[in-house]
Amino acid sequence: MTRDRFLHILCFLHFADNSQRPDQSEEYDRLLKLRTVFDTLDDSYAKFYNPSENLAVDEVIVKYRGRVIFRQYIPKKRKRFGIKIYKLCDEAVYTCAMRVYFGKDSQSATDDVTATHATVRNFTCRVEGLGHKLFMDNFFSSPRLFDDLDGHKINSCGTVRPNRKDMPRDFGPKQLKLKRGDVRVKTRGGLTTLVWKDRREVYMLTNMDPSPAEGNFFDNSNHPVKPHIMEWYNRHMGYINISDHMANSYLMDRRSLKWTTKLFFHLLDLTVLNSWILLSSCGAQYTHRDFRLLLVRNLIEEAGKSQYRPTPSLIGRPSVAAANIVRLESRHNQNSRAVITNTGQRNQRNFAAVFVHLAARERPRSASVPSVMYACAWCLVSWIITQK
Questions:
Q1: Domain total in the chain
Q2: Pair 175, 102 in one domain
């Protein structure tokens, strides 16, 4: 298949019937054009895999600069423009759950539950009661969320913003005058709030490990000692970034102005990555690249067995010039310059001209150069092209 043929078929890639689309109202689904594919993959990810103990929640950006109402602009990200997706990954960088961000969600947010709180609870409803450990950044974490997860036997750890609701008021940057290396801890039940200063203050929430000791700690090289819970957080928080990097290592994506096409190809790359992780968990010794090549070969072999492709009678397409010009005869002479002579009367209509491109380097006069007579089939005027 040629490239143009593939791009022509790609224009007709659709996943929903636009004629059956409901009217745009408050309950309109912005992912309607891709909802069936997205939900099918999301359910399959959770159906065929049991996640490991350590989990992480974070966001990724699918690069897209086209026009869609839920496109995001995050200037600090490498991909500044795109579609934001929340993901839940485990230690093997397997994507267990995902959700597209469509903007401010006023339906799931209430006075007691924020939109990010509801997002994390939707992800963890499949693993609650099993003793998993969940890591998140300050975009999601809050004391109420950690208490809610602890009630469902899910331990949590993550950075937190000091102005979150239910945070200790005396732990603000204006109240605490910390020096480099200082550690301050406050405990409420099983929840621990920690502040550590290196170049700036870092706030953390956790209900996993015992509370660290307060004080000012430096190592032998006069560097501030990082608390153990922060090293634990840095070790497990990068699952989503690794998963996104591996999914984008061998892109199937194509340049397109349709957001459905961009998001579909990202889901396709993510599905191939999850399939490789599933196969590796069963003991297979394939690299990510070798698995993709093997998958492509198997798909081509299956398509060749099932699809009937008749042999064409003619190979290729005739050119436009060959269809309008009929060659009458040819003869040879020994000239080196082209001379075009009109041998017929021209009609009132426009006629097609024939141009002959000679090489920039002239042939020697002794060389034999052909001279050919042509006729235009449309205007019925003959031309003789000779060499002078």
A1: 3
A2: no
In angstroms, what CA-CA distances link 155 with 119, 148, 150, 303? 17, 10, 6, 47
The single residue listed with the structure tokens 């459905």 is 260
DSSP 203-262: EEEESSSPPPPPEE-B-TTS-BPPPHHHHHHHHHTTHHHHHHHHHTSS------S-HHHH
Domain boundary (170, 205, 236) is at 236
* C-alpha span between 140 and 234 (Å, rounded): 16
- Please list the residues that pair with 245 across neighbouring strands: none
Cβ atoms of residues 57 and 12 within 8 Å: no
> Is there a single domain that holds both residue 149 and residue 230?
yes
Residue type, 228: H
**Nearest one of 252, 247, 297 to 273, comparing CA atoms:** 247
What whole-number percentage of the chain has pLDDT above 70? 76
Helices (H), 282-384: 288-306, 320-324
Tell me the pLDDT band of 84, cut-offs 50, 70 and 90. very high
Q: Are 340 and 385 a contacting pair, CB within 8 Å? A: yes
Calpha distance 375→383 (Å, rounded): 6
Q: Cα-atom radius of gyration of the chain, to the nearest Å?
A: 34
Query: For residue 362, what pLDDT is reported?
Result: 41
CB neighbour list of residue 162: distance below 8 Å, 6 or more residues apart:
171, 172, 173, 201, 203
Tell which residue, 53, 51, 234, 207, has the closest CA to residue 137.
Answer: 234
| Count of all residues that appear for the chain in the document | 388
Cα 272 from Cα 275, distance rounded (Å): 5
Q: What is the DSSP letter of 370?
A: E
| Domain assignment present for 15 | no
Burial of 66 (0-12, 13-18, 19+ CB in 10 A): middle
Q: Tokens representing 304?
A: 């060749």
pLDDT at 379: 59
> What pLDDT is recorded for position 45?
93
Domain residue limits at 187: 138-236
Residues 51 and 117 in one domain: yes
Q: What is the pLDDT of residues 253-279, one digit of tens each?
A: 777 888 999 999 999 999 999 999 999
Determine, yes or no, domain membership for 91: yes
**SS3 of residue 153 by DSSP:** coil
